[in-house]
Design brief:
Blueprint: H1 9-18, E1 25-33, H2 44-61, E2 65-71, E3 86-92, H3 95-103, H4 105-108, H5 111-117, E4 118-126
């Protein structure tokens, strides 16, 4: 889990082309914070918390909801030295709702805090397979 923080244009293009339209999408966020942001002025967690507070309005506008959020306390399988700090599940009504949000100028204006906060920021688009 290194140096993966922001989506590439290719990953966004592939998501838009391959995810079923008009189908809810749940984004699994896997987050590992920097101890300190690069200029040393604050913790990565503090920068991410600021981003999270600003992102709330964008999530609401996209019709999204936080399904679950939690702190990772122990790695059972995997590299404990690179254990993520938090995991979030955010559900959007459709992939178009998600894409409209993240590609908007207003949302892009707040992403700096997310970028400076994270050592790793995995994001997986998930489709429910059963209820």
């Amino acid at each position: 889990m290194f140096n993966q923080i922001n989506p590439t244009k290719e990953s966004i293009k592939n998501l838009a082309a391959s995810y079923p339209k008009d189908t809810p999408v749940t984004m699994l966020n896997i987050l590992r914070f920097k101890t300190k942001v690069d200029d040393g002025s604050e913790s990565g967690l503090a920068a991410y918390q600021r981003y999270g507070a600003l992102a709330q309005a964008h999530l609401k506008g996209a019709g999204a909801k936080v399904v679950w959020a939690g702190e990772v306390v122990h790695t059972i399988i995997g590299d404990a030295a690179q254990q993520p700090h938090q995991v979030l599940l955010i559900e959007y009504p459709s992939v178009d709702h998600f894409l409209s949000m993240i590609l908007s100028e207003a949302y892009q204006a707040i992403t700096h805090d997310r970028t400076i906060a994270l050592e790793y920021g995995g994001l997986l688009a998930c489709q429910q397979i059963s209820k």
